UniProtKB/TrEMBL annotation:
This is Beta-glucosidase. InterPro entries: GH (IPR017853), GH_1_N_CS (IPR033132), Glyco_hydro_1 (IPR001360), Glyco_hydro_1_AS (IPR018120), Glyco_hydro_1_beta-glucosidase (IPR017736). The lineage of its organism: Bacteria, Bacillati, Bacillota, Bacilli, Bacillales. It comes from Bacillus mesophilus. Belongs to the glycosyl hydrolase 1 family. Its EC number is 3.2.1.21. Pfam families: Glyco_hydro_1 (PF00232). The active site is at E164 (proton donor), E354 (nucleophile).
Amino acid sequence: MIQFPKDFIWGTATSSYQIEGAVKEDGRGESIWDRFCRIPGKVRNKENGDIACNHYHLYDDDVKLIKSLGVQSYRFSVAWSRIFPEGTGKPNPKGLDFYKRLINSLLENEIEPLLTLYHWDLPQLLQDKGGWMNRDMTDYFTDYATYLYQELGNQVKKWGTHNEPWVVSYKGYSLGNAAPGYVDFRSHLKASHHLLLSHGKAAQAFRELGPKGGEIGITLNIEPTYPLEDNEECKKAAAIKDGFSNRWFLDPVLKGSYPQDMVDIYSKFETFDYIKDGDFEVMSSPTDFLGVNYYSISTNKPGTQGELGFLGVESVKTGKPVTFMDWEVEPQGLVDTLQRIKADYGDIPVYITENGAAYEDQVDEDGTINDEDRRAYIEMHLKACKDAIDAGVNLKGYYLWSLMDNFEWRYGYSKRFGMVRVDYDTLKRTPKNSALWYKTVIEANGFNQTK
Ligand code: FCB
């Protein structure tokens, strides 16, 4: 039996835009994802989050569902534009009330909330002011965070500032395949700076105005990078990729600086004039935990093709099995990631705030969904968590992505990550076999290894 520490937290995760729907109800303001989904060609099948899983209305059933699976903690995000429809200024009590009802329902069912302040759905009116390119965003974000600390801090003890700022700035401002859809690498650098600065400011405000005994952290997506071959050129490519996707975010938050090798590389086209005195101190304000979202690895060689060709890096597939996202399955990457965080950044408590897999599920005639590939993925990654714990990593909990199938951003509803199936015609929820297995894991605080 693979046995977890007694106080290990078993959770599951979602995000506001991906599940809530009800985008025009109770005074919610437009978000950048509402807008982005309307740009032709940006989201598969012109899909959007207008209805999504209708969680806004079905939240009470969803909490019961979480409870029925034995899950102990629920990570969700707040839609900023429900709280401040204009992003700043006058709060909207009806929007706040939804989260109060959700949180009360969680607490009544003894499920611990982990609230993420920002999972990508910026109020459109703030985007109209430049979005994360505008340094003022760091103050608007802190005001929004502080308002929620004061309104919800009695009930919510675990808080996350941002979810995956790399995706927000790189995909949103440079690749252009996430909202707001800009295509300019320098904008990515500037936006990432403001995102991390806003994290630091909100973390400082938490110390002053947040709940006593509460915890605040940030969630970063970490993709360990490996050289394709064991030679200097491939190692250099892997190091650049690591600097680009991982260290650019880990270092400011946990070390208070940007990685010098990347500053040198980016200095060819960026002057960093947006960095102000004292920023690094703020960005590295002490936090209580690091959230890690882990899905896959990246393997690298020198080259000029593809997204990072301009940095001399090409990432390649290595023939490992892939999920329906075409992401290679490599649980060892999670062990390496966790050990590396400890070695390079110290013994900060870590939660896996997301891990999971999309597969093409089949519904059997009797209605069961035997998603063995997803179950096996989860099992292998839980084993990786246990290996990391045994190696001394301070890993405190695991949040499975996702509670239920939902709006998977530019892929629309075509990629199902849920342990619970959502029938998008009826919105009926049906636990898949992976969910039933996860329940047994939680009950036993461990599992018998089959993979
Ligand atoms: C992460 C996101 C989450 C979901 C998963 C599959 O990057 O945080 O919302 O889309 O990927």
